[in-house]
Amino acid sequence: MTRNGQRLLLLIDDEPAQRRLVSALAARGGWRSIFATDGEMGIATLGTQDGMQLDAVLLDHWAPDADAAPLIAELRSRRPSLPILLLTANGSVAHAVAAMRSGATDFLVKPLAPERLLVALEAAVAGTAAGELRPLTEKIPALLAFDEIVGSSPDFRAALAIAAKAARARVPVLIEGESGVGKEVVAEAIHAASPRSRRPMTSVNLGALPVNAMESELFGHEKGAFTGAFERKVGRFADADGGTLFLDEISAMPLDAQLRLLHVLQTGVIHPLGARHPREVDVRVIAATNRRLLDEVEAGRFREDLYYRLGGVQVTIPPLRERTADIPALARHLLARIAEQPGLRSLGITDDALALLAAYDWPGNVRQLQNALFRAAVLCEEAALTRGDFPQIAALGQQRLAPPRVPLTMATSGGVTLFRADGNLRALDEIEADVIRLAIGHYRGRMTEVARRLGIGRSTLYRKLGELGIDNAAA
Length: 475
Fold this sequence. Notes:
Elements: E1 7-12, H1 16-27, E2 31-36, H2 39-45, H3 49-52, E3 56-61, H4 69-78, E4 84-88, H5 93-101, E5 106-109, H6 114-126, H7 134-139, H8 154-167, E6 173-176, H9 183-192, E7 201-205, H10 214-219, H11 236-239, E8 244-248, H12 255-267, E9 269-270, E10 279-280, E11 284-289, H13 293-298, H14 304-310, E12 313-316, H15 327-338, E13 348-349, H16 351-359, H17 365-379, E14 384-385, H18 391-396, H19 408-411, E15 412-413, E16 416-417, H20 428-442, H21 447-454, H22 458-467
Parallel strand pairs: 1-2, 1-3, 3-4, 4-5, 6-11, 6-12, 7-8, 8-11, 13-14
Antiparallel strand pairs: 9-10, 15-16
Helix pairs in contact: 8-9, 15-17
């Protein structure tokens, strides 16, 4: 750490513009950057006075076909405890696997949002392994039907039921929930269940866009519309014509852009910057935010009329710490999907590992769980993951324990909670409803198989769905 209290980052990058961008983003979190233009210079820097004070290294993998693993291994051999992050434009899981096996602490993909960089740097320094490993999220297919989304928590299934019913309508949907809970997965499921499913869903993260570029990105511009507009740009609304547009981090939109968005939602007309004529579009908007948008309205940062226009249907996804009974089934599901990626294999997971995961409160939610499993799967040499494959989670266990509960072996059975928070058993019909929901999710809506596995007939199963008030979409 430097004398003035700033953390020191070594950025290995041969592109001056990229170096300036990353150093400016890091400075927002109190980091000072020093630079090396290639690996040889970066290794040499480790022996200097600045090099001895380093808190982290960020290696820009500027050549997509080159192998960054040898440089990472060399840096790691010289400074075993120094966090090393890889930044690349290539988001393949194979690159992530190779980089991590060589000693990389985390793996980030361009374009780099300020929040993601700072979270990854702070997590790497703290040794929490809470970075986002975005290639995993981006490359493992996320398009799931509602009955394929894992989770039997009543609040979670109720949220999915609302989303499933909204899918068939044309109204906008607002999805709220903490970062990492799976808002985009739910948006994909809404799109897949909608009449627009034949068209791809177009996504844009508004929080990652410069404010002055947001309107151009959404609505497009003509060549010469402003300084630097060297060619015509088709905006995201035009790209999504006839389909669905997912606007993530909608709360990051400035007020003037909010007014333009409201006008588009009201009229179905966009006016690209510099264009002589407007254009009609048919777009279904799904917005998401990790903040409570009504609080933003009350604080004057978000238009009230736009809030009500976007929130015709509101879906709130509960955080993972409020549905820890889902963790065993969710962990097995994520491991099965991880195993499909290049360079990885099928792994089991032991009960002691599941107990450890269930005891942690997961501030990064499902995304953090997925990344913890990915890290463990990359480095595991046995047939199953054990408690020892999650050293960071174990180390943090005493710091970030989930609220006290009955031990996993007593409280749950295959992801179904048996006891209430006060230690008393839940009512039998509540447990039965959860078992049926779990079975429907596990067997992906194949009702004949669900009935067979539960040992009842299909007619009995459907009767119980009605008696217990289980919406088929929520099951």
